[in-house]
Design a protein that fits this description.
Elements lengths: L6 E8 L3 H12 L3 E7 L4 E8 L2 E8 L5 H9 L2 E8 L3 H10 L10 E2 L5 E5 L9 E5 L3
Parallel strand pairs: 1-4, 5-8
Antiparallel strand pairs: 1-5, 2-3, 3-4, 6-7, 7-8
The structure holds cobalt (II) ion (CO).
Cobalt (II) ion (CO) binds next to strand 1 and strand 5.
Length: 137
């Protein structure tokens, strides 16, 4: 059986001050932000820092009812989710559901950068919020 998880797409870190976090990554590691996007549907402002073929995704909420705002209030800053690249988000999501695991998204939906994404509930995946990412370009 071939793994449906083809690469790490990104590791997401929730932060209170995204500009401070970007400045830190830039000054300490010489890291480069290659994409910045506000995803209104998720209530987040994100910055992607390229690391080889993957990204570090710095995430901060844009409103108080954003899931990331709730996460920060409960857990503080830190690792928020791990995103795996898949060839077919819908097919992999179906495999997750067929295993009986709880999912956050019943069907794939648009993510940032024109991707198609779906989240798996951390209760189903040993404590890690998992995002499945299908690139469309
Ligand atoms: Co993500």
């Amino acid at each position: 059986m071939t793994s449906q998880l083809t690469e790490i797409d990104h590791v997401a870190i929730a932060v209170n001050d995204i500009d401070a976090a970007i400045a830190w990554y830039e000054s300490v590691f010489g890291a480069v932000v290659v994409h910045r996007e506000v995803v209104e549907s998720d209530g987040v402002d994100e910055a992607l820092i390229r690391v080889a073929d993957s990204y570090i995704q710095l995430l901060t909420p844009t409103r108080d009812d954003s899931p990331v705002a709730k996460y920060l209030a409960k857990n503080g800053e830190g690792l928020h989710h791990v995103a795996y690249r898949v060839d077919n988000c819908a097919a992999t999501l179906e495999a997750v559901k067929a295993s009986g695991a709880r999912v956050i998204d019943q069907t794939p939906r648009p993510g940032s950068r024109g991707t198609i994404v779906a989240f798996v509930h951390p209760k189903a995946s040993f404590g890690t919020l998992i995002e499945l990412v299908e690139e469309t370009r």
